[in-house]
Amino acid sequence: MGYYDDHYGQYRQEQKGNRRGWFLSAFVGAILGALLVFISIPALSDVLPYDISSESGRTQNGETAKEPTIQQNVSVNVTSQLTKAIDKVSDAVVGVVNIQEANFWSQGGEEGTGSGVIYKKENGKAFVVTNHHVVENASQLEISLKDGTRVPAKLLGSDILMDLAVLEMDAKHVKKVAEFGNSDTVKPGEPVIAIGNPLGLQFAGSVTQGIISGTNRTVEVDLDQDGAPDWNAEVLQTDAAINPGNSGGALVNIEGQVIGINSMKIAQEEVEGIGFSIPINSAIPVISDLEKYGQVRRPYMGVELRSLSDISSYHLQATLHLPKDVTEGVAVIQVVPMSPAARAGLKQFDVIVALDDQKIRDVLDLRKYLYTKKSIGDKMKVTFYRDGKKHTVTMKLERESF
């Protein structure tokens, strides 16, 4: 028992000693930790998103500390931006009423309605851009404003190739004019709004929302309804709903700027959510020409053309006398007397294969190059085949006279 008691007493003493050692270690650790934090504060001031002040409310320089300013990311309120964009442009989107002339056998009336965009107000007149097919064959035109007011309109000019037309009206009823944006900077996925009058004026000012589905899209257009494409229209693709009556309306970005004039929609049972809009950057020079001259002033060659792909293999050899390896190009079917082509020496059955060394595959290629790359008065190098031999001439382009 004596051994146990002595051992127990020794154990108690060791336990007390351990407690004193632990307390001393904790106390020293706390002091060291406080010193470490105090030393670290100046360094942390460059890292933390707010000012660090002493308890007295003063900074190290002795100046009164400001309230801590917390930096944080603020998400964009897309819904609010869209409603602001709509408010900015909606009054400038109008209805366009096509009135057909009556005759003895039929009663005249509204043939159809579309949409338009007021883009300019000057000298008491307001100017509206819409689609060619909206105003085609109209004997009278009226503009229907947002409040239902009907104003007579005058057709200044129309272009079937770009499907654009410009109208003029009295400006006294016009409150807002649309602002044009930059369609060249538009990116897929960007939110857009289509504003117009789907299915007629009873749904005037309808708004649909979507995104840009694709840029630089090319759609073949058959202008004369002969089953063969006459033009490749470069368009913006969107999934914003565009229905009959939306034609001529505005495609608007989130800033409330018009980036396109709605024109076409693929209307097939198996296709949904594919709409097309003429990029505003492509439309602006056409709008300007129609407003000033009543027509688009394009460079003119003075030839009637046909793609080689539309000519039988027999006539490629027997009539055009082409080398067998020449399978793409355009044949000259007719040359207008005193035209640029006639002055350059082009003749019937010549086959154009390049313009300014740019390969030409068909009529669409030729028109696109001529209308988008050249201007009136420009000189153009023409490479062609005649009787199996390659030739080159230089042509000076002129303006087509109507």
TrEMBL record:
GO terms for biological process: proteolysis. Keywords: Hydrolase, Membrane, Protease, Serine protease, Transmembrane, Transmembrane helix. Residues 299-388 form the PDZ domain. SUPFAM superfamilies: PDZ domain-like, Trypsin-like serine proteases. The chain crosses the membrane at residues 21-44. GO terms for molecular function: serine-type endopeptidase activity. Belongs to the peptidase S1C family. This is Serine protease, S1-C subfamily, contains C-terminal PDZ domain. It comes from Parageobacillus thermantarcticus.
